[in-house]
Amino acid sequence: MRGYRAIKYILFFCCYVFWVVSAGLIAVGVYAKIAKEKDVVDTLAVDPALLLIVVGSVMFLITFLGCFGALRNATCLLKMFLGILVVVLLLQIAAGVVGYLFTDMVMERTERLMMKAIVRYREDQDLENAIDFIQKKFQCCGVESYKDWSHNVYFECTDTNPSLEFCGVPFSCCIHLQNQTVLNTMCGYGMQQLQQPTAAQGIFTIGCLEKIVWWAKNNLLLVAGLTGGLLLLEVFMIGLAATQISRIKKVRQQKKENAERGKSERKDSYWYPAFANFDDE
């Protein structure tokens, strides 16, 4: 009985933690959506706020089934939780296999997605902040090179572009000195007109896709550890849910057998024993 309670409350605790995290993701996503301008075009692939809401909602639903299924011993909810987790686990494994076997196709799709994000850089404040963070973190600029920013209407390097930032790059591409206290947001102006060796003195010229792939290869153990840890956690929760379902069924079966046995004993008590003495004294 103690083992069953331990399984029950461990599963509940794990689901509860992810439930709270999912609620936080939804709250942040909703706040970001409300704070945005209403005329912004929403696209799941390039809208961080919408992505947070969708991911948070899916996590909230799955962990809700796990929490209440474990707490109330509801096999129906636990079976739904178990089934969804198995499907998610298989999809993650399939995505990893496809990514390994079709690396070129995945890289091409990723490049298209990143280029689409560059095109919409000024249209979405959350997307703009996300791109700036990535370029600062990985010390990169653009997708393949700093000249990819010419695909954005504000940084397009043409004579007909009236923008003050034409032929430039965002300030997040700039190389900042360690002792620099004032941020120069105009440091990327006109950088696309310079050749790579000259531009490299003031901005990062290597594309972010190459830098991210390079980082992943150099931190392969970390990436593999995080991925493996997530998969093991899912397998652990699947095992807990399956064990609890099995224990619940076993307890119910025992109760049913005990009830039938008690009913049979009550029926037997209605019969008189053989050779009973009914003589009056």
UniProtKB/TrEMBL annotation:
The keyword Chaperone does not apply. It is a multi-pass membrane protein. The chain crosses the membrane at residues 9-30, 50-71, 80-102, 220-242. Disulfide bonds join C141-C157. It is found in: Cell junction, Adherens junction; Cell membrane; Cytoplasm; Membrane. InterPro entries: Tetraspanin/Peripherin (IPR018499), Tetraspanin_animals (IPR000301), Tetraspanin_EC2_sf (IPR008952). One of its GO terms (molecular function) is enzyme binding. Gene3D superfamilies: Tetraspanin (1.10.1450.10). GO terms for cellular component: adherens junction; cytoplasm; plasma membrane; pore complex. One of its GO terms (biological process) is protein maturation. Keywords: Cell junction, Cell membrane, Cytoplasm, Disulfide bond, Glycoprotein, Membrane, Transmembrane, Transmembrane helix. Pfam families: Tetraspanin (PF00335). Belongs to the tetraspanin (TM4SF) family. This is Tetraspanin.
